[in-house]
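explain this:
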Amino acid sequence: MKILIIGAGAVGFSIAKQLSTEGHDISVVDGNPKLTRKIAEKLDVSIIAGNATSPSVLESAGVQEADMVLAVTTSDEVNIVACILASKYSNNGKKIKIARIRNSEFTGSKSIFKNNGFCVDHMINPELIIVETILKILETPGATFAVDFPIGDVVLRGFHVPEDAPLVGLNFSELEDIEYTDSFLIVYIQRNDEMITPSHSTTIMPDDNIFVLISKTGLPYFLPMVNRRADEVEKIIIYKASRTGMLLAERLENSPIAVTIIEPEKDRAVMAAASLRNAVVLHGDATEIDVLKDAAVEITDIFIALSENEQTNLLTSLLAKKNGTKKTIVLTNEPELVHIINQVDVDVVVNPRLVTANEILQHVRRGQILSIAKLGDSEAEAIELIAEEGSEVVKKPLQKIRFPKNTILGAIVRNNTMLLPKGIEAINPGESVVVFTLPDDIERVQALFSKKK
């Protein structure tokens, strides 16, 4: 597939890197010489330096022949204009245009562009995705990672395993004797920097991070096994009243969760207080202990740092943790910092650029793939896809299907219900399946589930 990427920043680089390794013909346009030089040095893709709102620049990048245009600069306006221009170049009417848009006036349910799409087929709002992710974590006591799959009642959750968790010391053969094990599957264990695919002899250790595929109905039974003390979230603090912070606070307006916002800029604090009915808004700096105490940090379940400055986010979350907050969520805009921040006393790290790249890749890998999600800061990916009639995986004993070495068959959704592989003999056509694999094996996995040509 020929793909034109507008923007060579963190999102564009991540997408170009992934898609070029998968064999796509990639062209990248950006007006920043520093960014284009970086991509030229590290990736085998075509680079065009110039303004993406210029038709001549887009033509030089091959917009006429492009099957897909991904506009992912930091400017909503540039992304929209680039998609409008791209729509004027015919490719048998099949050119797909995807734009990264941060302004919720364009992407929200009341958007005036909802029906005509502004010549954009898909608008990806990273802030909305971040808010949805945080809400799922708030809804699951003790969770540090959360993904819901489109079909059935299947969810993927990540947990940090404390020392006193009932799971600690058990190996996977012993886990099979526990009640409700037919409703969950621990697919990976992240131990320090190592991602472990568990075997029967693998033992769960304190401080492991586990990724669990589980049915929504089975979740309440699993939670006490991983954390005795994980209670429902009753109070959170949000720092700051950024666009993401306000979106999150608005979504929680009618929930039982008490929300306090700390905002250092007075005008923004006043504006936040005027637009929110139930949240408490404090004007102050969360790096000051007195301000944290005014916000009742000692009885707070989760402190969520959502400013544009990752250093401030990290500092405020560490102070909140030291002064009584049970759990912290930190936003960072730099993908390279995700792994580093995960090494300190932070429970959850969210990165808008990574989630944007993942969301866009999901649209690129269209067809029978329903959704794709990276597991934390690891290389492993969870994929939900449809088993097509005539594909290699259907109506065949599971043990005879030759999956790639590092691929795990997680679950099958049959009649809207999650089934673990050990409980079934074969996959039927049209059923959705959750598979865990590495980026290099995605093409092979997709081929297994695709109708043979």
About this structure: The chain has four domains: 2-124, 142-226, 235-354, 379-449. The chain has a mean pLDDT of 90.
